[in-house]
């Protein structure tokens, strides 16, 4: 076997500014036979401190339900996903039954895996501080993006349940994009104004904070 | 509106060890009307340093294709997903066309958003170091989980293209679970042996590293 060639030259030419570009650079190759057919982006994994808090957030507030959980010994893992039908929404056990078989589970997308290391729930948030990836210089992971039928209604329900709203709709400024002062000052990167085409999108998007400080994005399904 | 009650008491009773539990604690409520119906877990967002490297990894090697990209001014964002049909795999532009409309995009799951702050590609990996969430004490995000038809074949193809394999199949030890020495020593949490039922699963799973050091999990679709 030989290394797979890189379809993307370095440096890549900059994309035209402020335009929604289907297919991006237009450099993506067709998928070669016998390579990645059948691959699924199944889940992302986040550490949590206290399962009572995080299950409340993702299940009661964000609408996910438990597919399965496993106590591995030193930690417990929870796989959550969204029920797909009225019957599954009425009966979370039915959703779990319908989804937990290996064939269904491994071809399902949009799951989140929460990992709770036993004992961290007894530590305070200050003692066992998880890092959300958005605070310089410890940048990396950005957010989990949910789409919702109506962002203002979703934000209102979350706010009423004590969730911190990081960005409301109607706002689209430089401080709402994931570029820190630290990066601009230290490296001189990420400079310049936001394109109008992007501000239009950003103004319709909300952000809230989960119980461990991870950023949760709410994207409208009725984007204008 | 009143706060949504928490369905999960604190502390939650420990789950039985080493058993795959559909529905987890069995405490999930049915979904109340007019709350989270229609919510989708659409994507996760990761910062990247150099789009040439990261698009090569996620597109050429992991089989994703570009739905759309946008240059916002100071940064560019890329939304990637897996083509669903032979026709889409043969023609990535068709996949983009089929997926990019607002209705389809916002009800699609299993997407990844990569954010490139312009200029970081000129910095070295040491200068602009992104944090993968798995190195103490900067713990948080864990990994992106892909399911694949055959983990050893997938690992071999990645290895031949220079990808670092973090965990091969056939291995299932304490150091392969996301609990650091730091947590055990500092807090006394996450102690104890791995349950046999979990080691059986873990031994079939692979982990590789993406170009920015993020952990990528490969879960077999033919789990035994």
UniProtKB/TrEMBL annotation, chains A, B:
An example Gene Ontology molecular-function term: lactoylglutathione lyase activity
Domain of life: Eukaryota
Descriptive protein name: Lactoylglutathione lyase
Gene3D superfamilies listed in its UniProt record: 2,3-Dihydroxybiphenyl 1,2-Dioxygenase, domain 1
One Pfam family linked to the record: Glyoxalase
Organism: Talaromyces pinophilus
Domain VOC, chain residue ranges per copy: 40-221
PANTHER family named in the record: LACTOYLGLUTATHIONE LYASE GLYOXALASE I, LYASE (GLO1), PUTATIVE (AFU_ORTHOLOGUE AFUA_2G13550)-RELATED
Keywords, in A-Z order: Lyase, Metal-binding
Entry keyword annotation includes Cytoplasm: no
């Amino acid at each position: 076997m030989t290394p797979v060639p890189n379809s993307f030259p370095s440096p890549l030419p900059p994309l035209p500014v402020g335009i929604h570009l289907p297919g991006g650079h237009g450099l993506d190759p067709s998928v070669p036979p016998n390579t990645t057919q059948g691959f699924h982006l199944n889940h992302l994994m986040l550490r949590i401190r206290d399962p009572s808090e995080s299950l409340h957030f993702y299940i009661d507030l964000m609408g996910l339900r438990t597919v399965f959980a496993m106590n591995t010994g030193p930690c417990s893992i929870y796989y959550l996903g969204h029920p797909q039908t009225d019957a599954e929404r009425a009966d979370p056990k039915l959703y779990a039954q319908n989804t937990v078989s290996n064939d269904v589970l491994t071809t399902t997308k949009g799951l989140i895996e929460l990992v709770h290391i036993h004992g961290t729930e007894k530590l305070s948030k200050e003692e066992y501080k998880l890092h959300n990836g958005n605070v310089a210089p410890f940048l990396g992971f950005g957010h989990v993006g949910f789409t919702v039928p109506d962002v203002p209604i979703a934000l209102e329900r979350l706010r009423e349940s004590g969730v911190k709203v990081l960005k409301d709709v109607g706002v689209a400024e430089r401080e709402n994009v994931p570029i820190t002062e630290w990066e601009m000052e230290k490296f001189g990167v990420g400079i310049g104004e936001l394109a109008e085409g992007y501000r239009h999108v950003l103004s319709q998007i909300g952000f809230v904070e989960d119980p461990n400080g991870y950023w949760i994005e709410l994207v409208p399904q009725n984007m204008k």
